[in-house]
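Structure tokens please, single chain.
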Amino acid sequence: MIKRKSISFFGVLAVMLMMISCSSNEQSATTGWAYNDPDNGGFEVIPYEEQETGPGLVLIEGGTFVMGRTEQDVMYDWSNQPRRTTVPSFYMDMTEVRNIDYLEYMHWLKRVYNDENPRIIQKALPDSLVWRAKMSYNEPYVDYYLRHPAYRDYPVVGVNWLQARDYCSWRSDRVNEYILVTMGILNHQESPTSDNHFNTDAYMVASIAGIGEESDKQLIDISPNGGGVRRVRMEDGFLLPKYRLPTEAEWEYAALGLIGNTMYERVVERRIYPWNGHITRTDATDNYGDMVANFRRGRGDYMGVAGNLNDAANITAPVYAYWPNDYGLYNMAGNVAEWVMDVYRPLSFEDMEAHNSFRGNVYKTYVRDNTGAIADKLYNTIYDYKGIMEWLNNPNGFYANLSTGLNDDEEKMKEKLNSGLEKVIKLQEERKYEDAALSFDDMLQNDLYGNPSSTIYIAAEIAKGISDFIIAEPGELRQREVTMEENLSRRNYRKSNNKNYLDGDYASNYNQDNDWNNWQDKSSDGSGKMYDYGKTSMINDKARVYKGGSWKDGAYWLSPGTRRFLDEHQSTSFIGFRCAMTRVGSPIGNY
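Here you go.
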């Protein structure tokens, strides 16, 4: 098993103090000028050893492996044909994210947003109703699974892909905030607010205030052009890279754990599962014959026979149950399947790069003001306005699925909402972002929440649905997708959105329209014509990959090479997630 390092904030603090109190005699190898010398301009070079391991993470040493099918393709999808690829070193959570971890996240959101932005809290709520089954009594799980302390260490479920992504972002900020508080750079903020709480990106932009309460103890700015003190910078190496979902390649590589199954560069046995052999029982002397994962052994058999419960879990199990794989990762087969970052395409294995494979890139940049500086952080909630319009009005949308139709008051509300959304979308297309956000808030207050609840019964359902389309929250920096015009001289990419590159875009479509604009308009939902979304397939740019088997699956899905997909807005009782983090610098670390 690979050696792990714990994060040492006191070690970071010691390095910082040494940096402040001591000057280096090191000289530039290219100019001869001394580093860290105020008389030479004060260019700082910080003592640095290697990246610290963030809380809950394990270092996964990267390498090459054969990604894809290791078991018979019993589903006949042909979506995971074997191919060799290389995965750089990265970090991954030792376990799935637990209920207690997600409740900590919900508690923070309530402290910060409850009074002014309750829709942000609503957006993050797991769907506890995923436990319901028409012919099964699962109401106890609906009522107790998320919040009862008996399930504290069980994996959180009912979380869709978007919620999992947001949790990773929140965790990044809280860990980096803790680092700065421990270093004494920030004061502990007892009452963060929606427009004044720590955000890593906003903190890095030194011109932006309102990122928490900065203390009097700041880093010394030795530049003669500085102001005497400065914020922590990326060059200092104190703050950690962002937590995120793992890519499909990373997850599959980590699950196989081939580091414990190699001799020099020879893989001794190609694994079907995250353990050696072709069966799902252990051959260990003390536990001979026990199941090594939480899965469904057969029809109607979720836990074994009383008196000798083999996996002792009829649904999920605590995240530290069973044996870890050779990377020290628990439950990489069974318990819950897990979200990964990738957008699903059946032919991704034919198209993706052989290094750090991933489908789903959408390149963005920060919005800048008239002076060219990064614009101030958001004070309004930003929504996907086009997505809301489509969700409400498309042939399979909210209005179309109302079994009773719309009454007169609801028809009037529909007209007002559609008219308001058209205005907001136009403002956004004109790059009047603040006006668009304010106009949308006014529309919600006047045309949705301002209606009497006694007559507009669907208003609450619309408000709940709209919360799913939040794309940026107060306290964050505003971002936009890069444009083709600003990328004209680039050779590596032009478009911002590359989710359907080579598989669903205009160039790859087998039934191209001669009219590009006509084809583009019909593909605004990201599905394109190729997959005929909603008619012959459920594949579009919102289809996200999830990996691994669960408590509800048979043994076939325990193979890391299997892959499935689900819409990013949907959740189930058998899908959870764990976070990952990029490893910077040396792939193996300085042990």
